[in-house]
């Protein structure tokens, strides 16, 4: 039995070891590191995100416990965004980092720019908002720089050259080490790379994309091509599909679940829809496999994502220490996902994406790539 790497507060305020952190096979559970795409940045194969939780769903005390557990278990990548809880997520993260005083060189911080405020000039990817947005984020985070700044959505109202030039300026100013994209199409990513090559600017190193049992096509078919062509890595988010894949919605909407939160009616409707009911039926079959492996439904879903060798990192989110420990433990089940088990999951899901023509890069982009 390994020594637990953190303590959590019991209701009596007495510090006791978190049971979820005990594991008899620490080597198989350990976090591993890989390059983010073809960049030199070494990232843990699981990262920790602050969406919904920091500055909103959890207290600052719980947020600190979560970040501490993640860091002490080897996670070196922490993701946030200017829009998360209207900037409060960055504020909370910044306060924790300042208090912990970890070596700045020992962890990676990423934030995302797009929705910064209500004014027309406080959103989008104009040069003005990219520069003002990153400066505001750094102020909330109490940092001199972030490691990666992501464009949180493509912006058709802004010329691609303006976006790439602004991101290059941010990096040259030392406010960020790298830049990336989030929820961009492969054509938009390719265009940004081509513009960067044409004007000797800095291209993106990674794309953040949703990936789980029921959202597969982009990550499994399109992104590997982006990696081999231009070196863009893939960071995936929502491995549990906002909690849907944890099994907690099998009997409806729990009162304290994310789907019950204000502003998440879209998630509630998705769960209660006909397609949502079909997904829950498939999850009941997958739960049998999880039971055979001795893991939870959520752990199997996370391990299934990590198993994909085309992914640099899977972002996790958690609202309790126990939940985070359980999610991290999913790593020990990755080696147990044999070919036979993966085929059985594939049979149940019945949604394996097939390669198809998504539209080749325009000729001018192809010529730039060959320069």
From TrEMBL:
GO biological process terms on file: regulation of potassium ion transmembrane transport
Family annotation (InterPro entries): K_chnl_volt-dep_bsu_KCNAB (IPR005983), K_chnl_volt-dep_bsu_KCNAB-rel (IPR005399), K_chnl_volt-dep_bsu_KCNAB1 (IPR005400), NAD(P)_OxRdtase_dom_sf (IPR036812), NADP_OxRdtase_dom (IPR023210)
Membrane topology: Peripheral membrane protein
Keywords of the record: Cell membrane, Cytoplasm, Ion transport, Membrane, NADP, Oxidoreductase, Potassium, Potassium transport, Transport
Record-linked SUPFAM superfamilies: NAD(P)-linked oxidoreductase
GO CC annotations, alphabetized: cytoplasm; voltage-gated potassium channel complex
Gene Ontology molecular functions: oxidoreductase activity; potassium channel regulator activity; transmembrane transporter binding; voltage-gated potassium channel activity
Pfam families, per database record: Aldo_ket_red
Annotated catalysed reactions: a primary alcohol + NADP(+) = an aldehyde + NADPH + H(+); a secondary alcohol + NADP(+) = a ketone + NADPH + H(+)
Keyword Transport (UniProt): yes
Domain (NADP-dependent oxidoreductase): residue spans on this chain: 45-346
Subcellular location: Cell membrane; Cytoplasm
Entry similarity comment: Belongs to the shaker potassium channel beta subunit family.
Name of the protein: Voltage-gated potassium channel subunit beta-1
Gene: LOC106075591
